[in-house]
Amino acid sequence: MIGISACLIGEAVRYDGGHKQQTQLKQLVDNGEAIAICPEVLGGLSVPREPSEMINGDGVSVWSGQSQVATQSGKDVTQAFKQGAQDALKILQQHDIDTVILKEGSPSCGSTEVYDGQFNGTKRQGVGVTTALFEQHGIRVYNEHNWHTTFHK
Ligand code: SF4
User: Fold this and answer.
1) Does the beta carbon of 111 lie inside 6 Å of ligand 1?
2) In a domain, 81, yes or no
3) CB within 8 A of 40, min separation 6: which ones?
4) 13, 55 Cβ separation under 8 angstroms
5) What's the structural domain count of the chain?
6) What is the pLDDT of residue 152?
7) What confidence score (pLDDT) does residue 151 get?
8) What's the domain of life for this entry (predicted)?
């Protein structure tokens, strides 16, 4: 059993009310081989919601208290992002899951790059808030681009 970002299996939970379904990943959930998680919804954020980015850092620095997550209009949503990550981790632990496939680029789920906090489409290397927590707990995090070549069920 693995975990997959809910938006990658077609659940309309993204900030814009849409999804980014990948048919092969949805198939894994339909076959009972994976469960879907959306940390931002678990953290109590609405669908749709204002886009958020990490200011001055990435998920690792959010957990160390050096960065915040904020919406485009400047609302601090750090606590909701952290709560959602912790709730998602609990779900993985309840299912004995140590491998996930998460949506690249997201301030929660990104695993190699995230937006840089200026809301102008620029990315920087880094991980999302949920990915950082998962990796701190030994969970292997892949994304929709690299799971084909590296993922072992
Ligand atoms: S990228 Fe992660 S937090 Fe964002 S909608 Fe998809 S599952 Fe939810």
Assistant:
1) no
2) yes
3) 13, 15, 49, 80, 81, 84, 108
4) no
5) 1
6) 54
7) 64
8) Bacteria
Range of the domain at 42: 2-124+139-149
Q: Are 49 and 70 in contact (CB under 8 A)?
A: no
Q: How many angstroms separate the alpha carbon of residue 23 from the centre of ligand 1?
A: 17
Our answer on whether the CB atom of 19 is closer than 6 Å to any ligand 1 atom is no
Mean pLDDT, consecutive 10-residue stretches, the chain (153 aa), reads 98 98 97 98 98 97 98 98 98 98 98 98 98 98 92 55
In sequence order, the 6+-apart residues with CB closer than 8 A to the CB of 6 are 13, 19, 36, 37, 38, 41
Residue 132 lies in a domain: no
CA 141, CA 152: separation in Å to the nearest integer? 12
Tell me whether the omega of the peptide bond preceding residue 48 falls within 30 degrees of 0, making it cis. Answer: yes
- Structural contact between residues 111 and 102, judged by C-beta atoms closer than 8 angstroms: yes
